[in-house]
């Protein structure tokens, strides 16, 4: 579910990785999306990320992102 909130921007997938200059995302960005090599590297990126949740969450806070959850969600 995507919702738009006035005066806010939504996090775009990969922003953290690009800002951290992760070599995997930089390589991914150079590949044709949906190619075999792209899909293999994307899976590697997902399964073997060199960063952890704390680093990601800390980065979100430093960049001013807010994590929101609709009231009626479970």
Task: Explain briefly what this protein structure is.
The protein has 74 residues and is mostly helical. The chain is built from four helices and no strands.
Descriptive account of the structure:
By secondary structure, this protein is an all-alpha fold. The protein has a domain of 48 residues. Helix 2 packs antiparallel against helix 3. The model has no long low-confidence stretch (mean pLDDT 89).
Please supply descriptive tags for the structure shown above.
74 residues, mainly alpha, 4 helices, globular
Helix content: 40-55%
Number of strands: 0
The low-pLDDT segments are none
Order of helices and strands: HHHH
Q: What is the count of DSSP helices, taking H or I runs of 4+ residues?
A: 4
Oligomer: single chain
- Briefly note the structural class of the backbone: mainly alpha
β-strand percent reads under 5%
Instruction: Average the pLDDT over all residues and give the rounded result.
Output: 89
Give the terminus-to-terminus CA distance.
Answer: 13 Å
Alpha carbon gyration radius = 15 Å
Shape: globular
Q: Please summarize the sheet with the most strands.
A: none
